[in-house]
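User: Predict the complex with magnesium ion.
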Amino acid sequence: MTSALSIRSLRKVYDNGLEALKGIDLDVAEGDFFALLGPNGAGKSTAIGIICSLVRKTSGTISVFGTDIDRDFSQAKQYLGVVPQEFNFQQFEKVIDILVTQAGYYGLPRRIAEERSEKYLRQLGLWDKRDNRARMLSGGMKRRLMIARALVHEPRLLILDEPTAGVDIELRRATWQFLRDINARGVTIILTTHYLEEAENLCNRIAIIDRGRIVENTSTRQLLAKLSTETFVLDTREQLDAFPDLPGYTGRLVDSHSLEIEVEKSQSLNELFASLAEHNVHVLSMRNKTNRLEELFVSLVQAGADRAGGGTDGGRS
Amino acid sequence: MKARQQWVAFVTILTREVRRFMRIWLQTLLPPAITIVLYFVIFGTLIGPRIGAMAGHTYIDFVVPGLIMMSVITNSYSNVVSSFYGNKFQGSIEEILVSPVPNYVILLGFVFGGVARGIAVGAIVTLLSLLFTSLQLHHLAVILGMVLLTAILFSIAGLINAIFAESFDDISIIPTFVLTPLTYLGGVFYSIDMLPEFWQAVSRANPILYMVNAFRYGFLGTSDIPVSGAFLMVSAFIALSYVYAIHLLARGRRLRR
Ligand SMILES: Nc1ncnc2c1ncn2[C@@H]1O[C@H](COP(=O)(O)OP(=O)(O)O)[C@@H](O)[C@H]1O
Ligand SMILES: [Mg+2]
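Assistant: Here is the predicted structure with magnesium ion placed in the model:
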């Protein structure tokens, strides 16, 4: 499998001394629909910015389809399409001009530039608006304009930085469907988001970034399985010398009077206690063991819930 | 990027720059035309006859080339500084920065956009001057060569200003405090022969003096300074500012975070 993106030991220290990325490694295979999930301020936009050269890295290497961005930046950039988090087109330009111009920056001759612009404006439902000035578009349309602009040179890797932040539900669904179609046609997609729901819905792989570090990088299925188990610490009356044989449960002995047991959300605690009783183990007290990943998820899920409550359309965030 | 693609990218940037100043012609083409016509009326028609001859020519004939040059300088500079800074401010400079366009193509695209504006305004002003006097032509190649080099130089200077600028104030400081004084003292309105020895020497340190005089030579055949020296000097300034601007773009400071 070809690697669409490969990042090694990437660090970024901003001029003010803030270390936004603390050495991250990441591999995205060709054809993946990949989520970079993390709370606000985690370093997602910094990572995207470095990949597309808007942010200067402090150290580390990046290659896009095997091309090192430091060695052949021109080739690497041809592979890459970027949809930034904030609107960054000229507000006074016409929609069609923005696309044709962008194609020109990639060296596409005028005729092809015009064909491609029409193709992607149609696909994103903006063809009717082609002669409007960009500032006249609604927030959702502006976001779609940026997606069309990123596709006009037909990149093999499309990167979207929070593509649906502040977009209403209907439009978010339409955007998701559009991205699925693009992915099905062979374009590798990486999107950043701070909504678990979005990553879960779209992506086959999820990396979680928090405070400048990748804390998890796995398939969506495995991640969800991990999240559906809880770890409990049980203090027992009896002294134990080994983890008892409990069919259906995994865990470990912490010390002679405590056990750590993983319980899937679907399993009942009564059954667990019953099995323990069979081994003559009596539980005196029990607490939920939280780990960093779970805490992170609570905040991510919380962010999702907040959004469902009050989403506004567009705007710089 | 292949040479052909670079050419497409260059034409793209240039087209976008020209489209910009044409779209807002009320701000870019009309005001300089009005200003210069006022100069023609005041200095040419009203005051000019009382001043008498300057360097052997009627005052209006003397002042017209200088005023054309002044509008070329101001307009090429301000086109690039406001367009490039505007792109930085709105974020749309990122459209170019994420693309494979090499830095020198970015520079040339914006610079020739500025040259186009400078020359467009220069041409408008030249046509308007015909309402007030009939222009002589002494040496057309000198006129065209000097106007082109001057427009290139001040477009690059505008680009450098825009790269450093971090607010709209920053893009008016240099024009107000450097460009305008140098232009006014650059022999647009008078021949430096009129000045005492000392001020003549000081004036010779002003590069704009050379451009204005060489340009005027193309019309009238008279100059305070050697014309070939002026070409050499402007070319040297262009080379220096080009290298510096490319260095700034490559380093990416104030463009890439
Ligand atoms: N230009 C900058 N200068 C200094 N710090 C910055 C800059 N941009 C972002 N940061 C900081 O870097 C961290 C990561 O930011 P960012 O990459 O935007 O996070 P995310 O996109 O995940 O929300 C944050 O603490 C943010 O405040
Ligand atoms: Mg961000």
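Confidence is low (pLDDT under 50) at residues 307-317 of chain A.
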